[in-house]
Write a structure and sequence with these properties.
Largest sheet: 6 strands, antiparallel, barrel
Strand order of the largest sheet: 17-18-19-20-21-22
Shape: elongated
Strand content: 25-35%
Low-confidence stretches: 404-453
Mean pLDDT: 82
Number of helices: 15
Length: 561
C-alpha cells in the first residue's frame, strides 16, 4: 500500500523570491501576472493577505484600495518550476519516489511515496516531523500531510492547520469527511455549483447517489472523490533525471495507429544510435513516452537481455509490446509527441563479424527480448553453481525483465509448480524441458559470462556426463514414509508420500552423490529413478547407507516428465 506525503508550499512564488534574495523581508509582497482585464494577483505573502488582498484581484483595484506600500513582482512560472524541481531533488533524500504537483494542483507542491522507507527515519511520524522542521529552518512555509492516497494527502495538507497531519493506514475516509469540497482538486465552477446546492463537506458529497452527481457535474467530480478515498488508483509520475540518450518528435496531426508509433520509435532509435556508438554503449532498457493531445501520458518500458542499438530490432520489440497492449493503449484523439529515452546503458564495443552474417548469439538474445515483450513477464534462465547437491547445482537468474530494468540481475523469482497430482506445495521448483540435462556439477556464473561464452563458442558450461535429471526438483527432499524394500540396500518397493501409497513398478540406480564436507557434516545420498504403477516417475534418495540399528530415511527430491 502506498503511503504518500504531500507538501503544499504556501505562496511558493513569494517564497522563491525571498529565498533568492530578490525581495525584502517584512514588507507586503505580491506576485502578479497578465490575466483577463490586465494584471492580476497570483501569489500573496501573509502580510499582504492581512491587508485583505485575495488571489485573482486586479492589481489596479488593489493599489487604489490599500493605503500602504505593496511590493509587486512579475510572475516567472519557469523560475518557480525550476526551484520546485530542485526542492524535489532535495526531498528524494527521504524516499526515491518524488513527484511534483501538476497543473491541476496549482504546481506549488510535491508528493513523496514513503512506503518502505519511513523506517529509515524512525517511523512515519518522525519522518514527517523531521521534514517539517527542516523546511521551517529553511524558511519554506508548507502544509504537510501523510495519507494512503495523493488526493487525501493533498486535501489534508491544503486545508489542515500549521501542524503536520499523519493519517493511519485505512483512515483516509474518516479524516476527509469534515473537509470542504474545495480540497478535492476540483475546478472553481464545480466547487461553486456544489456550494449552491448546499454541499460543502466531502462527507456530505460522498453520501449522495453517484448517478445524479455524474449527470450534473461530470465524471471528473467522481474521479477526484474516488481517488481521494482510495477507490481508484492514482499513479504518480516520479521525477527522473534527464536521459543522456534521448530523442523526441512532435506531430501537427496526432498519430494513433500502431504502425505509425513503431515507425516513429525506429526513427528515434536511429537518431540516438550514433551517440551510443560513439561512446561504445548500447541500450539495456528503453522508455517510450506517448503524449496524448489531452495531456495524458502513456509510458512503455522495454527491458533488453543485452546492450542493443539496432533501430530495426527496437522497432520490432515495440511492435510486440503494442500487440500485447491492444486496446489498453488508449490513443484517445491521438499522440502529439513521441519520446524515446535510453534509461539503462551497457558496454557494447565494436565487434568483427563476417560479411552479411549476424553476430554470434544474437538470435538467442533477440528471442529472449521478443518473448519478454510478448509475454509481459520476466524471462528466467538457469545458471550453474559449484555444488554436487542437486538443489544447489543451479540458480534462477532474470535474463530479461521486459519492463525496463535491464538484463541479468539476481531476483527471488520462483519457478512454476509441478502439474502432476497430488497437489504440490508452493515451494516446488520447475524447470523447462530443455533445461533437464543442465543440472550438473559446474562452476557458478554470477556475471553471466558462461552464457556469453556459450553463445560465442557454442560450448556449453553444463556437464553432459551425468545421468538424467528430473524436470522438477524440490528445494529440499520431501519425506517418504512407511518405505518397504525387498533388499535393504536396494530401491523401495512401496512407500507413502503426500498421503498416498505408491507402488514401484520399475527402478534404476543407485547414483551416489557425496555430501559437501566443507559446508557441514552430512551423509552420502543414493538416488533412484523410479516409475510407480500409477505412471508417476519420481526421483528418490536414501539419506545415508543402510544400517541394521538405524532404518534408512527416504526422500522424494524430484519429478520426471
Amino acid at each position: 500500500m502506498p503511503r504518500i506525503v504531500c507538501i503544499c508550499l504556501s505562496h511558493w512564488p513569494v517564497t522563491r523570491l525571498r529565498r533568492a534574495g530578490l525581495a525584502p523581508e517584512r514588507v507586503p509582497l505580491a506576485v502578479a501576472a497578465e490575466g483577463s482585464g490586465g494584471l492580476r494577483l497570483v501569489a500573496l505573502d501573509p502580510e499582504a493577505r492581512a491587508l485583505g488582498l485575495r488571489v485573482g484581484e486586479p492589481l489596479g483595484r488593489v493599489r487604489a484600495r490599500i493605503g500602504v506600500p505593496l511590493q509587486v513582482y512579475p510572475a516567472d512560472p519557469e523560475a518557480d518550476r525550476d526551484a520546485l524541481l530542485r526542492l524535489c531533488r532535495w526531498a528524494s533524500g527521504y524516499a526515491p519516489h518524488v513527484a511534483p504537483f501538476g497543473p491541476g494542483e496549482a504546481a506549488d507542491g510535491l508528493y513523496i511515496d514513503v512506503a518502505g522507507a519511513s523506517h529509515l527515519r524512525g517511523g512515519e511520524a518522525n519522518l514527517v516531523a523531521d521534514l517539517a522542521a527542516r523546511l521551517a529552518r529553511s524558511r519554506v512555509p508548507a502544509g504537510i500531510a501523510l495519507a494512503d492516497t495523493p488526493g487525501a494527502a493533498f486535501a489534508l495538507a491544503r486545508q489542515g492547520g500549521p501542524d503536520p497531519v499523519v493519517v493511519p493506514p485505512g483512515g483516509a475516509s474518516q479524516a476527509l469527511r469534515a473537509l470542504p469540497v474545495d480540497a478535492l482538486r476540483l475546478d472553481p465552477g464545480t466547487v461553486a455549483g456544489l456550494k449552491r446546492l448546499g454541499l460543502r463537506r466531502i462527507g456530505e458529497l460522498d453520501a449522495l447517489p453517484r448517478g445524479p452527481l455524474a449527470r450534473r457535474f461530470g465524471a471528473a467530480l467522481l474521479l477526484r472523490l474516488d481517488q481521494a478515498l482510495g477507490r481508484r488508483p492514482e499513479p504518480l509520475a516520479p521525477l527522473t533525471e534527464a536521459a543522456a540518450y534521448a530523442a523526441a518528435r512532435g506531430f501537427l496531426d496526432p498519430i494513433g495507429r500502431q504502425s505509425d508509433i513503431v515507425r516513429t520509435a525506429r526513427d528515434l532509435m536511429a537518431e540516438t544510435a550514433p551517440r551510443l556508438e560513439r561512446d561504445g554503449l548500447g541500450a539495456c532498457a528503453l522508455r517510450l513516452g506517448l503524449h496524448r493531445v489531452d495531456g495524458a501520458l502513456r509510458v512503455i518500458d522495454l527491458g533488453l537481455s543485452r546492450p542493443e542499438r539496432d533501430p530495426e530490432r527496437v522497432a520490432a520489440l515495440v511492435a510486440l509490446r503494442l500487440d500485447r497492449l491492444g486496446p489498453a493503449l488508449d490513443a484517445g484523439f491521438g499522440f502529439e509527441t513521441v519520446a524515446l529515452a535510453v534509461t539503462v546503458t551497457g558496454p557494447m564495443p565494436a565487434r568483427q563479424t563476417d560479411l552479411g552474417a549476424a553476430a554470434p548469439g544474437d538470435g538467442i538474445g533477440f528471442l529472449a527480448d521478443a518473448l519478454a515483450q510478448r509475454l509481459g513477464r520476466a524471462l528466467l534462465r538457469l545458471e550453474p553453481r559449484a555444488s554436487h547437491l542437486p538443489e544447489r547445482a543451479d540458480r534462477d537468474r532474470v535474463w530479461v525483465t521486459g519492463m525496463g530494468h535491464g538484463p541479468s540481475t539476481d531476483r527471488g523469482v520462483g519457478r512454476p509448480r509441478a502439474p502432476l497430482p497430488p497437489p504440490a506445495p508452493e515451494r516446488e521448483r520447475g524447470a523447462g524441458a530443455l533445461l533437464q540435462r543442465r543440472r550438473s556439477t559446474v562452476m557458478a556464473d554470477p556475471s553471466g559470462l558462461a552464457a556469453e561464452e556459450e553463445a560465442r563458442t557454442g560450448a556449453s558450461p553444463w556437464s553432459d556426463h551425468l545421468p538424467p535429471r528430473p524436470l522438477v526438483i524440490f528445494p529440499r527432499g520431501e519425506a517418504a514414509l512407511d518405505v518397504l524394500s525387498t533388499v535393504p540396500e536396494g530401491p523401495p518397493r512401496r512407500f507413502r508420500w503426500r498421503a498416498r501409497i505408491h507402488r514401484v513398478a520399475h527402478a534404476e540406480g543407485p547414483e551416489r552423490i557425496a555430501a559437501e564436507w566443507w559446508r557441514a557434516p552430512g551423509a552420502d545420498r543414493d538416488y533412484y529413478r523410479i516409475e510407480c504403477e500409477a505412471g508417476h516417475r519420481l526421483w528418490l534418495y536414501r539419506d545415508g547407507p543402510h544400517a541394521p540399528d538405524r532404518p534408512a530415511a527416504w526422500y522424494v527430491h524430484g519429478l520426471f516428465a
